[in-house]
């Protein structure tokens, strides 16, 4: 699908920072980005949330105040907070990467190693309209996300990553996988795809891991959904059934290149919505906990806006 791109004139930017992102790099990275944004003649309002709740409140206040762009300095979880405030508002999000995985920055072509170059993307004003996802637990509040919702071994790994204090970057995901993999057992899943539509289908299967993807990667560049199109109105679904540990370990590295698709035991499909049910499984999205299953998940077509480099071609 052709990328939906437009140009904006950016004059005012709210820069929301996770001060503990990247092991405490967040503040330093944000300072460099703010200086660069000001060098472009932009007015920058620097915001720091001491918790996820405070950060979300600050993001909502900035958008309600009429800011031209909301830039976030942190990782995928911080971007996820931003999209919960931004969805359907017309205010674009800029990413200043400072997290562990930085999958969303990578997806949108934002430079990972230079806060100044990332700030230049924000100032450039090129906006891409994309899909978001929304997960609603039974009896719970909806949770908007920008990349991948996962449930199974991958969400257990995510929980472990968020609790770890050693290592940094994608290596943390590798170590967490090594820790969780030997003892994790597949669960019985019931997945109802496109419920209420003519093509509704229910699948019951033993599932080791599952991903429902707007974008292509999670876990620090694991290409779980290599063909995902972030503006086609569909999730790319990938789930792995009961396979031997030896076989999974042998093929694990293929997730980084996306060549796991098509292997025996790996199922892929697309859908607009899905209800996911299983016992003792937690759903994670954009690297953060959503809720224990069951969860209803749906695509929000065109709900997201991201500032992207002018050289970025839609994959």
Automatic annotation (TrEMBL):
Keyword terms of this UniProt record: ATP-binding, Kinase, Lipid biosynthesis, Lipid metabolism, Nucleotide-binding, Phospholipid biosynthesis, Phospholipid metabolism, Transferase
SMART domains documented for this protein: DAGKc (SM00046)
Any coiled-coil regions, as ranges: none
Residues spanning the signal sequence: none
Keyword Ribonucleoprotein: no
Record-level GO BP terms: phospholipid biosynthetic process
Cofactor(s) this protein cannot do without: Mg(2+)
Residue span(s) of domain DAGKc: 8-139
Highest taxon listed in the record's lineage: Bacteria
KW Repeat (keyword) present: no
GO cellular component labels: plasma membrane
Classification via Pfam families: DAGK_cat, YegS_C
Gene Ontology molecular function terms on file: ATP binding; ATP-dependent diacylglycerol kinase activity
Family, similarity comment: Belongs to the diacylglycerol/lipid kinase family.
Family annotation (NCBIfam families): PRK11914.1 (NF008882)
Name of the protein: Diacylglycerol kinase
Organism: Dietzia psychralcaliphila
Lineage: Bacteria, Bacillati, Actinomycetota, Actinomycetes, Mycobacteriales
